[in-house]
Design goal:
alpha/beta, Rossmann fold, seven-stranded parallel beta sheet, 7 strands, globular, binds NADP nicotinamide-adenine-dinucleotide phosphate
Amino acid sequence: MWLKGRRALITGSSRGIGRGIAVKLAQEGVRVAVHYHKNEAAAKDTLERIRKHGADGLVVRADVSRPDDVRQMFAGVKREFGGLDIFVSNARPDLPAFYQAPMDITLDKWDMAFDSQAKAFFVGVREAAPLMGQGGRIIAITYAPSARTGSWQPWIAMGSAKAALESAVRYFAVALARRGITVNALSPGLTDDSVLNTLPKEVQDLSRAWHESGWTPMGRLTSPEDVGNAVALLSSEQAAWITGQVIAVDGGSSLMDTVFPLDIQRG
Ligand SMILES: NC(=O)c1ccc[n+]([C@@H]2O[C@H](COP(=O)([O-])OP(=O)(O)OC[C@H]3O[C@@H](n4cnc5c(N)ncnc54)[C@H](OP(=O)(O)O)[C@@H]3O)[C@@H](O)[C@H]2O)c1
């Protein structure tokens, strides 16, 4: 009930994980600002889904790698909602914008990863916090294995940018603690209906089979709804004492490692 009537902005909610988060919050009665970069039709489709759940919202556009765009997006949200209770920083550029090996990657691709993750979050939180009353919720969507161990080689720029994003989460958690605003990161496992579905079918099939075989102990890919459920949990009144954390939403996949063959790791 606490979520009913709250106001959320979710970057990158035109599709993928962001859309799953938007729809879940709408089911809880939250009004949602659906953000997109280029795909306005997809954003409008998300808004339609939100309305089907009896909630409402609006569509906002920004290139999150550009601070002025981010500021204008928040100004639009303030005009429409009058304030904000939940900010989810989820947007991520498409792979060609940053996906290159350490010895090949160009500086503009490196900058795109950092500008769209650490800097977008940094600018976004400083715009979001003044709009929040006591007890707001700020959530960054990360990929902790890349930040921590360099998983998904050779994605050096995004792994490093996610590490910087997670670090920023901890600093802002302390900075905003006295206002009762929690700041956390969620780390999804490999997720269906997301960027994965833009990869060649063979890659999708191999990835699905890999996780079903046991590399995700719960035996399937993560879904956008799984991440939406976790956002709803962290946004609840009961989550008021959880801050500065990076929490996996992955059916246990981050518990598995390559030290032993899978066959002898299964329970
Ligand atoms: N997919 C996974 O398996 C997985 C796993 C772990 C973590 N994550 C994280 O989860 C988040 C969402 O991933 P996803 O795979 O669901 O994404 P996705 O389906 O590829 O969607 C990306 C979203 O970001 C928006 N976007 C792209 N470039 C942008 C820019 N320059 N400025 C603002 N918005 C931009 C897109 O808007 P348009 O539709 O307008 O282009 C879209 O809404 C990311 O932070 C990602 O790192 C994903």
